[in-house]
What does this fold into?
Amino acid sequence: MKAVLWLGMWLACFSVSAQERPRDVEIVSAEFGVFDASNPRETLFGPTRLIPHKVGQRYGWVIEVRTRKRSLSVREEYLLPNRAAEATEIKGADVVALIPLERRSQVSQRQLVPQDGRIFGEWEIGPNEPAGRRHLQVVVEDEIAASFEYEVTYAAANGGQRFAPAPFSTL
It folds into this structure.
């Protein structure tokens, strides 16, 4: 009886509910924008939601974290731009399914090592990448860390007035 009581007290002391458990990762801040690596000695980041539609333009996010973990599980989920006229055809076993492009999303999963308390997600505009609005959600350690709405736009690429990123910061 004494052993059962001792075991119960021990379990009560060391069992922590999910609500009381300290978080392994704290999200301090999150920004979306463009990267400039024209100087090989440093990469600069400028927050913006308008991405110039120029082949090779680098863009993405920077998330500042507080954690003791050596690496973080990161999942990026985003909806591809709306092009209602296009669809993807999937064939299989006498069935053809058309999936409208606005209903397709892409997901990437990877382990990232924080550098100076920050993690980064970066892409580059490709030659066949369409312009348009996108929605990106970044999930860190199974918790939504950030959600971004942004637009890849020809106006920004052509020096239009719509593209005015904030001053760059060194990463």
Summary: Residues 14-18, 84-91, 160-166 have pLDDT under 50 and may be disordered.
